Amino acid sequence: MNPRQRRGVLLMGVAVLGAVAVFLLIAGYVSDIGHRVGPMTTSYRFTDEVKKYAPITADDIEEVELPSKWLPEAAIQSFDTSRGLVATSDIPAGAMLQEGMASSPPELKPGQSEIAILIDAETGVGGKIQTGDLVDIYGTFSVSSTDAQGGSEKADQARVIVSNAQVLAIGALQKIDSPDQEEFRQTEVVPVTFALDREDSLKVTYAESFATKVRLALVAPGTRSQPPGSNGVLEGSQLLKAGRG
Question: Which residues form the Flp pilus assembly protein RcpC/CpaB domain (predicted)?
């Protein structure tokens, strides 16, 4: 073997030793990182924003592999989208799926039934009320009465029809023709479905048929409202005095 061949063999040996050294360094680094990071586990991340009480579908979440030590303690590691669970609150995109974020959709209690009425989209709902919320249902009426001289007069009233009614569903926006004095105009309405007992269902049906306006008032989460006054009725004169006061 001539000197040139010996130099070649020597260089090849050095290259092999260098490759082995680099491999050992990389393996040691990976092992150290793996030791620091810990075992990997499966979890779920939201790819899109999910509104409160909206169903959580397979399109809303993605499966991700993350180190167990980096996951929140309440992170869910097994989730079946076919169960029909819904979001318990508004969930932003990128959030990790955790316990308490999903639950069964609102259901009817014993003695309740579903009843849907049309509510003015602008004044009655306003885009703030969502499925699962508790609302107070108000109605304004024009009531005829007899004065001291035996004549007929009309008095305006605002009534609490039902307190703490649970919203089961909010339908799509619709346009209907409604009388406006001498001409007809189109009004935007939304069908809202409530979970009510028989008595409250009758009250809501009456209000939808005879009230001048039916409005919804959102009840603060975690609270229950109390109707104003002894009977939940305010006369027009009382309202004017309250406004001046």
Answer: 108-218
HSE on the CB side for 63, CA within 13 Å?
9
Q: Which two tokens stand for residue 205?
A: 């049906």
Q: What are phi and psi of 77, to 5 degrees?
A: -110, 0
Q: What is the pLDDT of residues 90-107, one digit of tens each?
A: 889 988 888 888 887 777
Radius of gyration of the chain (CA): 33
Q: What is the DSSP string of 32-89?
A: HHHHHH--EEEEEEESS-B-TT-B--TTTEEEEEEEGGGS-TTB-S---GGG--EESS
Residue range 184-234, pLDDT digits in tens = 567 788 888 899 999 999 999 998 888 888 889 888 876 777 755 545 555
Tallying the residues shown for the chain, one arrives at: 245
Asked whether 110 and 145 are in contact (CB, 8 A), the reply is no
Question: How many other CB atoms are found less than 10 A from the CB of residue 49?
Answer: 14
The values of phi and psi at residue 235, to 5°, are -75, 160
pTM, rounded to two decimals? 0.54
